[in-house]
Write a structure and sequence with these properties.
With about 325 residues, the chain is α/β, with parallel strands linked by helices. About 45% of the residues lie in helices and about 20% in strands. α6 packs across α7. The radius of gyration is 26 Å and the shape is elongated.
């Protein structure tokens, strides 16, 4: 072995052999974080929100299928499916669970107290029992709160501006849903101040909608106000079609309602909430604890007016409202 003594060669060989396991370990693929996504709704209903989430993740360097994977579970509007879907994600031992609203977050809370949870659009974390406080959630759940019950009064004001002779409104709400109940209670004072008579119409599930429509038709009200409730989100087109057929100006808190033919929508920009929620996912996957991440509130609101529907109802939308709208559907 020219230029190298046998003893040196053996020493070199021994060092190389010792390094092999290190090299092999270095070549092992990095574990990709797995996120479980639990939604009350269907893929079609949540498409723009989940696109916003994925865009928010991409902006932070997380690309689905490359360095992060997402397990999707949809309840398709059936709240009774949420506990089983939550347990399924817990069994998969995902690194984090992302939920869209309060109901799936509560289902996950009962399924695990250890897996971190991010909620994109909850309705009062503290009152619903998801967190101990806004500044320090204290458990395994954090995210963004869409709480803004005072917006129900604002939606009545908007209806009154478009329908000056408005005197009575049918309000669809679910007494079994804390968020819906809180919005119903918050609606009483604004209605009185506006001189409006509110007709309570309780709907607990989709099967009760036809009966509710029948009652609403007989109430001879001037307009329809839909309060926040997953059942209504899952049946936006059905409700909008009923309102159109019965010549009822209608309002809801999600822009998708105006897209479906409702007269107007006013509320937090939910896509913005989902995009901002990506920052929580990013921080937690990098080691932050949900208990230490303060809950944030909406910063962006949107007014969407369906001018085509207004014209079909024989209504004239004031120019100042058209100018204030983020979008006017013609």
């Amino acid at each position: 072995m020219p230029g190298m003594r046998r003893r040196d060669f053996v020493a070199l060989l021994g060092g190389s052999v010792a390094a092999w396991p290190l090299a092999a370990r270095a070549q092992q693929p990095t574990k990709i974080p797995r996120v479980g996504l639990l939604s009350t709704f269907s893929p079609s209903e949540t498409r723009p929100w989940h696109q916003a989430l994925r865009q928010g993740l991409r902006d932070l360097g997380w690309v689905e299928g490359e360095n992060i994977s997402i397990e999707y579970r949809y309840a398709e509007g059936r709240l009774d499916r949420l506990p089983g879907l939550a347990s399924d994600l817990v069994r998969l031992q995902v690194d984090l669970i992302f939920t869209d609203t309060t109901s799936p977050a509560l289902a996950v809370k009962y399924a695990t107290r250890t897996i971190p949870v991010v909620v994109a659009s909850a309705s009062d974390f503290v009152e619903s029992g998801l967190a101990q406080s806004v500044a320090r959630p204290g458990g395994n759940i954090t995210g963004l709160d869409q709480i803004a019950p005072e917006l129900g009064g604002k939606r009545l004001e908007l209806l009154k501006e478009i329908v000056p002779k408005l005197s009575s409104v049918v309000a669809l709400w679910n007494p079994q849903n804390k968020t819906s109940t809180r919005n119903w209670n918050e609606l009483q004072d604004p209605a009185r101040q506006l001189g409006l008579l509110l007709h309570s119409l309780e709907v607990r599930n989709a099967d009760e909608l036809d009966k509710a429509f029948e009652v609403a038709s007989g109430a001879r009200a001037d307009a329809l106000a839909i309060l926040p409730e997953p059942v209504f989100v899952a049946n936006l087109k059905r409700i909008a079609d009923f309102a159109a057929k019965n010549h009822l100006p209608s309002t809801f808190h999600l822009r998708e309602f105006a897209d479906a033919g409702g007269l107007l929508a006013y509320g937090p920009d939910r896509s913005d909430l989902f995009r901002r929620a990506a920052a929580y996912v990013d921080k937690i996957l990098k080691g932050a604890k949900p208990a230490d991440l303060p809950i944030q509130l909406p910063t962006k609101f949107e007014l969407v007016i369906n001018l085509k529907t207004a014209k079909a109802l024989g209504l004239t939308v004031p120019d100042k409202l058209l100018a204030a709208a983020e979008e006017v559907i013609e």
